[in-house]
Amino acid sequence: MAKMTTSLVLGLALVATAGCAKKRPPELPPTPTETAPPVEGGESSDTIAGRLNEQFKREVTSDTVNFALDQYDIDSQARSILDSQAAWLTAHAEARVTLEGHADERGTREYNLGLGDRRANAAKNYLAARGVSPTRITTISYGKERPLALGSDEASWAQNRRAVTVVIN
């Protein structure tokens, strides 16, 4: 009986310990704009996506929407930018995009990941309201992990509070 009780206690301790294991933070995926080397005898899908993304950047007002501090609402300037993106996406029905949400360096990692997610989804919802199928849009939050400007001043922070649209194919 004592042997069975000891085994039961050890088993419960192992289960409790396994439940308390620290989870590794998810690794950030590579930037969608990275391209693979060209394939002989044809173009790779990454090359085509890169070319389509360059065309997107040339033909829309901007690929970036900026936000105010701790905000994720779409203001009039952001609406103008997203309207041009919606028009481009409507004309290129085969294109799929990723909306990347970013935050400035202030705040905790968790807070900034959440804020970046809300910014990316606000832009996605706006594009969806303009007739772009939500199935063509994916979102990802990088939080403060991929700053555009490296300074620690208001001008740099303002550049880093953004949602960027990247054509992935």
From TrEMBL:
<dbReference type="InterPro" id="IPR036737">
    <property type="entry name" value="OmpA-like_sf"/>
</dbReference>
<keyword id="KW-0564">Palmitate</keyword>
<comment type="function">
    <text>Part of the Tol-Pal system, which plays a role in outer membrane invagination during cell division and is important for maintaining outer membrane integrity.</text>
</comment>
<dbReference type="InterPro" id="IPR006664">
    <property type="entry name" value="OMP_bac"/>
</dbReference>
<comment type="similarity">
    <text>Belongs to the Pal lipoprotein family.</text>
</comment>
<keyword id="KW-0472">Membrane</keyword>
<keyword id="KW-0131">Cell cycle</keyword>
<dbReference type="InterPro" id="IPR014169">
    <property type="entry name" value="Pal_lipo_C"/>
</dbReference>
<feature type="signal peptide">
    <location>
        <begin position="1"/>
        <end position="18"/>
    </location>
</feature>
<keyword id="KW-0449">Lipoprotein</keyword>
<feature type="domain" description="OmpA-like">
    <location>
        <begin position="54"/>
        <end position="169"/>
    </location>
</feature>
<dbReference type="InterPro" id="IPR006665">
    <property type="entry name" value="OmpA-like"/>
</dbReference>
<keyword id="KW-0132">Cell division</keyword>
<dbReference type="InterPro" id="IPR050330">
    <property type="entry name" value="Bact_OuterMem_StrucFunc"/>
</dbReference>
<keyword id="KW-0998">Cell outer membrane</keyword>
<protein>
    <recommendedName>
        <fullName>Peptidoglycan-associated lipoprotein</fullName>
    </recommendedName>
</protein>
<keyword id="KW-0732">Signal</keyword>
<feature type="region of interest" description="Disordered">
    <location>
        <begin position="22"/>
        <end position="46"/>
    </location>
</feature>
<dbReference type="InterPro" id="IPR039001">
    <property type="entry name" value="Pal"/>
</dbReference>
<dbReference type="Pfam" id="PF00691">
    <property type="entry name" value="OmpA"/>
</dbReference>
<comment type="subunit">
    <text>The Tol-Pal system is composed of five core proteins: the inner membrane proteins TolA, TolQ and TolR, the periplasmic protein TolB and the outer membrane protein Pal. They form a network linking the inner and outer membranes and the peptidoglycan layer.</text>
</comment>
